[in-house]
Amino acid sequence: MIATILLSVGIVFLAELGDKSQLMALTFALRYRWWVVLGGIATASAAVHLVSVGVGYFLGAALPTRAIALVAAITFLAVGLWTLREHFGDDEAAEPKPPRSTTAPFLVVLSAFLLAELGDRTMFATAALATDNSWVGVWIGSTVGMVAADALAIAVGILVGKHLPEHVIGICSGLLFLYFGTASLLAAAIPGISVLTGGALAILAPAAAGIALLIRSRLVRSNPARIDDHPPVEPVDR
After folding, report:
1. Is 134 inside any structural domain?
2. How far apart are CA 61 and CA 65, in angstroms?
3. Please, what's the b/e burial string for 17-43 (b: 16 or more CB within 10 A of its CB; e: otherwise)?
4. 200 lies in which domain range?
5. How many domains does the chain have?
6. What DSSP character marks residue 162?
7. pLDDT tens across 160-205, in order?
8. pLDDT (tens digit, 9 = 90+) per residue, 6-61?
9. Which of 23, 33, 119, 229 is 20 to 30 Å from 128 by CA-CA measure?
10. Helix axis angle, 34-55 relative to 20-31, nearest 10°?
């Protein structure tokens, strides 16, 4: 059992290094509290890996991976646009915001990682390991390995977040989600596309959004809509 757990931890940890899951964890860590992100990742990992080791390769082969990838791409794009809309305000960004609950961020992280990991290479790796090893050991080890790998990305996000203002963090998070969504959409729509080509094309979406935001920012600064420009209406004496 111990050998199976250690083997699964090592394989999944190495497989997750540099994977999109780490980038997602870093992005979420820039926006939400670290323990909320880690809790969502751990819950999603445990659920996905339980399915993969429980049913094994047959369920993995039967999963509609293309449909799942399309849903994940739409989710990432929606989160990216929502984040940019929320954080790229005129004067509202400077106003203090009320504290947010942890329920909504947890559900966002949980759903995003569930969609991203279903049909991912890690799921097939855990299914393959479970065919010749104890499924309990593979489940525990794969979950620990993924959480450990993503915890490194969360630590990086915490360090980066301490040196950046919240406004910049929100915009960067939105642009990164646009990148994830576009990359996932290209991979699902064009199955034969290479990783390098898809990644290069996916950069166009956040780049275009960034340029549009920059142009809008300059237009707002050059033509601010001020109430002070209109003279106050004096009361009429009767």
Report:
1. yes
2. 9
3. eebbbbbbbbbbbbbbebebbbbbbbb
4. 2-93+102-219
5. 1
6. T
7. 777 777 677 777 778 888 888 888 788 878 878 887 888 888 888 8
8. 888 888 888 787 677 887 888 888 788 889 999 999 999 999 888 878 765 555 45
9. 23
10. 150
